[in-house]
Design goal:
This protein has four helices and no strands. It is mainly alpha-helical. This is Formate dehydrogenase subunit delta.
């Protein structure tokens, strides 16, 4: 994956989180649902890999949503 692709994924995840922040307690679930429904499998895999390697550029809300994706990936494999 190129650095610019990763930068785009991080930016998009943070934007989705920011655009849904007004939902309060439901924000993380909404962001997680959006990523799950609308992102390609390869995009989800790349953002989860980034989270597991670093993740420092994800906003707290985006990070939590991606953590949920990561847990689901582990559950499907396990």
């Amino acid at each position: 994956m190129s650095r610019s692709q990763l930068d785009s994924l991080i930016h998009m995840a943070n934007q989705i989180a920011a655009n849904n922040a007004h939902y309060g307690d439901a924000t993380v679930e909404r962001v997680h649902s959006h990523l799950k429904k609308f992102w390609a499998r390869s995009m989800k895999r790349q953002i989860v890999d980034y989270l597991q390697q670093d993740g420092s550029r994800l906003s707290p809300l985006a990070r939590e949503a991606v953590e949920r994706l990561a847990r689901e990936q582990v559950a499907r494999v396990g």
